[in-house]
Amino acid sequence: MRLFRNLMVPTLLAIGALWLGLPGAPLSLAGRPEAAPDETDAREPQTSPEDETDAADDDKVVKSDSEWRKILTKEQFNVTRRKATERAFKNAYWKTKKAGVYHCVCCGEPLFDSKTKFDSGTGWPSFTKPIDKKAVAYREDRGETEVRTEVLCRRCDAHLGHVFDDGPRPTGQRFCMNSAALKLVERAESKKGDSKKNYDAAVDLPAKKSR
Ligand SMILES: [Zn+2]
Asked: Same structural domain for residues 45 and 124?
């Protein structure tokens, strides 16, 4: 028995060692293939949040001053990018009654519907509300004598004008806008849900040409 045991133990050890050394042996596979996916998993979560941030900012239109100057007239640039105010009664839309949608002159975002336009007597196009709450952004505009609420295009941060609380019903608000910040696309061209496309077709933006 002792001889048998003395022979069997080394033999079994040798067989075990051989088996483990084979390429298909379970122990040699166990470590490696699991290590690779771990490395990949560790990398993926780092890129995903960046991708999501990029997607959220995709809609924003950001250009340098020199880029804006190329696609805007001097007055459009001074109003939308430098917060200038155009002259009252000497602008394109102060008394316009045509039906349509007023778009941002910079980025084409639909901003105001002619249905909410009213004659404020100020000499600037005035509206009771934006076409969509999300179309515009607001910023406190602290001047030397008064604090006003500046209205900007949500998409490209163009200065549009100011909003006041002395408007007619139903909102009681008066969005006092600069014509130079707007582009009216008349109703026939501006069908619902297609206004951006029609805007691009209706206004010949140099920005589109250069792309
Ligand atoms: Zn805009």
From this structure: no
Number of structural domains found in the chain: 2
**Distance from Cα 28 to the centre of ligand 1, integer Å:** 61
Q: 180: closest CA among 71, 82, 86?
A: 86
Q: Which helix (H) or strand (E) holds 77?
A: helix 74-82
In angstroms, what is the span from residue 168 Cα to ligand 1's centroid? 26
- Express each pLDDT in 15-61 by its tens digit: 444 444 445 444 444 444 444 444 444 444 444 444 444 445 578 99
24 and 79 share one domain: no
Cα–ligand 1 centroid distance for 183 (angstroms): 11
Q: What is the pTM of this model?
A: 0.66
156 catalytic per annotation: no
Which residue out of 107, 153, 156, 176 is catalytically annotated?
Answer: 176
**What count of Cα atoms within 13 Å lies in the side-chain half-sphere of residue 72?**
26
User: Which residues constitute the domain of residue 127?
Assistant: 65-210
Residues 51 and 82 in one domain: no
Q: Among 45-49, 58-62, 110-114, 154-158, which stretch is predicted with the lowest mean pLDDT?
A: 45-49
Among 70, 104, 75, smallest CA distance to 91 is for 75
